[in-house]
Write a structure and sequence with these properties.
The chain is built from 14 helices and 14 strands. With 376 residues, the chain is an alpha/beta fold. Strands 3-4-2-1-5-6-7-8 form an eight-stranded mixed beta sheet, sandwiched between helices. Helix 3 crosses helix 4 and helix 8 crosses helix 12. The longest helix is centred in the middle third of the chain and has 20 residues.
Length: 376
C-alpha cells in the first residue's frame, strides 16, 4: 500500500493520565504521523476535560475501580460511544489495546459494524492483585477476552510471555510479537557533564538508586519500602529517588535516605536516568515496563524481580540483575551501582527497542489486514 493510512488508536487513557500504555501510544502515534500517516487517538479524558484537538479525542468516562482497587477500567456512555463511532468511520484501520478493556470492546463492536479491520495489542497477561480479583481476572480473559481476541484481524503481544500465558489459558489465537519501543533519541547515555548536573539537582548524594513507577501494589512498592532501610544502613550517603504518584505513596513516610519527587513528566525522565547509578523495579504482573527499557537505553544497570516479563525479555542481558524471592537486595544494588558504564547496556537496548522498528512493524500489520480477509 503506497497511500498514507488513516489509523484510529483506542486506549483506556491518554496523558496526563500516567501509564505504560499511554506512553507507548504517544510514541506510536507520533511515529505514525512523522511517517506520513494520519492518526486519531481516542481515549478517556480523565484527568483532563473532554474535547477534541490536534489528533486526539478525549471522551467523558466513568472510572470507579481505579481509586478503589487500583484497576484502571473506564466505561464510556452512549454519547462517548457515538463520538467514537464518528472517529472510527473515517479510519482505514482501528488499533485497540488490551482484550479485557471495556473501551476495546466498544471499539471492536463499532469497527466491525462499520466494516473496519482491527488490530489488538495485548500488553499484559495475568496481573496478580490477590484474592477474588485474581479469579475475576482469569474468568474475564477466558470469556470476554477470548471473544475480543477472536473478533480482531491481528493480535500483537509486546512480549513472548504474554502470548505464552494466553496459550496456557486455552486461548490459541496466534499473536505476533512487536516489542514496545522507546525513543532512543531521547533516552541515551548521558555525558559526564550531564550526569554531574543531574546529580547536583538531587543534592549530590554518593549514589542514586531510582525507583520510577506508579505507586500501586503491582509495582513492588512494599518490597522497596521493606528492603531499602537495610540498603541505606549498609551504604550511608546513598539516596533512593522515587519518581511516581499513587495510592501507596504514604508507604514511604519515614523510609530513610529517600527523596520523593512525585509524578514526573516524560521530558524530565532522561535527567533522572542520568543521575541514577541503578534502576530498581521489583514489580509483578508486567507486560514489559517501559521504564526498564528507558533505563537501559541510558546505560543504567537495572535490578528487577523474577517476573515472567523480565525473564522473557532480559535473561542474559548486560547490566541486568533478576532477583528471586529471598535474594540479597542490598548486595544486588551494591553490585549494580558499581558496574562499569561502558555503553554495552545502551547498545544492547538500542538494537532491540528502536522506535522506527516498532512503527514499521505496525504499519506492515495494518497494511496486511487491509489487504486480506479477516482472520478467524
Amino acid at each position: 500500500m503506497t497511500r498514507p493510512l488513516w489509523v484510529t488508536v483506542v486506549s483506556n487513557f491518554m496523558p496526563p493520565h500516567a501509564g505504560g500504555i499511554e506512553t507507548m501510544a504517544v510514541l506510536l502515534c507520533d511515529g505514525l504521523v512523522e511517517a506520513g500517516h494520519a492518526v486519531r487517538w481516542v481515549a478517556s479524558a480523565e484527568p483532563a476535560p473532554p474535547g477534541r484537538d490536534d489528533h486526539v479525542t478525549r471522551l467523558p468516562a466513568w472510572n470507579p475501580l481505579e481509586a478503589r482497587i487500583h484497576v484502571p477500567l473506564p466505561i464510556w456512555g452512549p454519547r462517548a460511544v457515538a463520538r467514537l463511532a464518528a472517529e472510527v468511520r473515517t479510519a482505514d484501520v482501528v488499533h485497540v489495546h488490551e482484550c479485557v478493556s471495556v473501551t476495546s470492546w466498544d471499539a471492536i463492536a463499532v469497527a466491525k459494524a462499520l466494516g473496519k479491520p482491527v488490530v489488538l495489542t495485548q500488553h499484559v497477561g495475568f496481573v496478580p492483585y490477590g484474592g477474588a480479583l485474581d479469579r475475576v481476572q482469569r474468568l474475564a480473559y477466558r470469556t470476554v477476552g477470548r471473544v475480543a481476541l477472536s473478533r480482531v484481524d491481528a493480535r500483537v503481544a509486546v512480549s513472548p510471555h504474554v502470548a505464552a500465558w494466553f496459550a496456557e489459558q486455552g486461548i490459541t489465537a496466534p499473536f505476533e510479537l512487536v516489542p514496545n519501543a522507546r525513543d532512543e533519541r531521547l533516552y541515551r547515555p548521558a555525558t559526564p557533564e550531564a550526569r554531574a548536573a543531574a546529580r547536583a539537582t538531587l543534592g549530590n548524594p554518593e549514589r542514586v538508586v531510582l525507583f520510577a513507577a506508579r505507586l500501586v501494589p503491582k509495582k513492588g512498592v512494599d518490597t522497596v519500602v521493606a528492603a531499602w532501610p537495610e540498603v541505606a544502613r549498609r551504604n550511608p550517603g546513598w539516596r533512593l529517588v522515587v519518581a511516581g504518584a499513587g495510592p501507596l505513596a504514604d508507604r514511604f513516610a519515614g523510609v530513610p535516605a529517600t527523596r520523593m519527587l512525585g509524578q514526573q513528566p516524560q521530558e524530565a525522565m532522561p535527567a533522572l536516568f542520568a543521575a541514577a547509578d541503578a534502576y530498581w523495579l521489583p514489580s509483578r504482573g508486567e507486560g514489559f515496563p517501559l521504564t526498564v527499557q528507558e533505563a537501559m537505553l541510558c546505560d543504567v544497570p537495572v535490578v528487577v524481580s523474577d517476573d515472567p516479563s523480565f525473564r522473557a525479555n532480559l535473561d542474559g542481558a548486560p547490566g541486568v540483575t533478576i532477583l528471586g524471592p529471598g535474594s540479597d537486595v542490598a548486595g544486588a544494588l551494591e553490585a549494580a551501582v558499581r558496574a562499569p558504564r561502558d555503553g554495552h547496556v545502551a547498545a544492547w537496548a538500542a538494537s532491540r527497542w528502536a522506535r522506527a522498528t516498532m512503527v514499521g512493524r505496525y504499519v506492515g500489520i495494518y497494511e496486511r489486514v487491509l489487504g486480506t480477509p479477516r482472520a478467524t
